[in-house]
Hints:
Layout (H helix, E strand, L loop, with lengths): L2 H4 L12 H13 L9 H13 L9 E8 L14 H11 L4 H9 L2 E8 L10 E3 L17 H20 L4 E7 L3 H13 L3 H4 L8 H18 L6 H8 L2 H16 L3 E3 L2 H13 L7 E3 L8 H7 L16 H19 L3 H4 L7
Parallel strand pairs: 1-2, 1-4, 2-3, 5-6
Amino acid sequence: MTVSALLDWLNAAVHPIDAQAHRDALARQSRLTKPPGALDQLETIAVQLAAMQGAADPAVNNVHIVVFAADHGIAAEGTSAFPQAVTGEMVKNFATGGAAISVMARHLNAHLEVVNLGCINDPGELPGVVNRPLGAGTANAAREPALTQQQLTDALDAGREAVSRAQHQHGELFIGGDMGIGNTASAAAVICALLEQPARAVTGPGTGLDDEGVARKVRVIDTALALHGPFADTPLEALRRLGGFEIAALTGAFIHCAQVGLPVLVDGFIAGCAALVASRHNPAVRQWLLFGHHSAEPGHRLLLEALDARPLLNLGLRLGEGSGAAAALPLLRLACALHNEMATFAEAGVSEKSD
């Protein structure tokens, strides 16, 4: 039985974008006291959010950040500069508020949830952490499929469940983050399979590999692609064979956000990989995705081009955790405030552009 047959919800229709709200938002932007297009992306994002929310006054005040954490078997091949123990240790750091995304969530007044999908050193029960263990990390994709069919099913469903929790709390925007030593290798392998690119075109230093380390990582990914490429004939099968628990959970989350009409602000390389899988599985998902930043990971450019995405920031970030998307959140809030609160030419008594 295929994964799609096991997960009927994956193929449910995507919530429609509100065409009338889109037209109304464009019309309002044309009447505000500024030259047309002068605020560029701040205008387009406000219009997109208005259409997504079906609202004249879009808002992203109630923001839910969910970080999915898991280990990767491919790390055994030396694809990361850090030991795998770091994943579980960082889960503890999230729980105690010491991680970058923890600080950002506090200062942005955003709700932060961490979902532990399986670490080699299980951190145990922690406040603010949802335990959804699928195994002590994935299998080594350089030697066998990374996930079983059941693990993929459960990981996708874990993403759906996280979105349902956010929706239950009336979330207005969803940010998905990642934590997993070895996950840039897994993501690069999935992206290579879907974009038909060689490993050298997509692979970068991740957590800080030197040139020799990157070359080794390329060889490992090439090995995984040679092993699984002939069988990775659908986006979900590429994800199962080459990906990770947290990449699959992010994929499920993005698909379900589109189904329930919850806008997504996509983070960097890992979340972008999940966005690619989700959009390849159902192209209608793409219209629910906004993009926070351009990652320093070299393959992110190819990924953004494939998704026809124009990210808001380019700060050289490569942390993950949802941090790049969180850094862009204030711009979304400014875009909404400008759209909702600027005066029109008529209200301000300002002359409009001459024909």
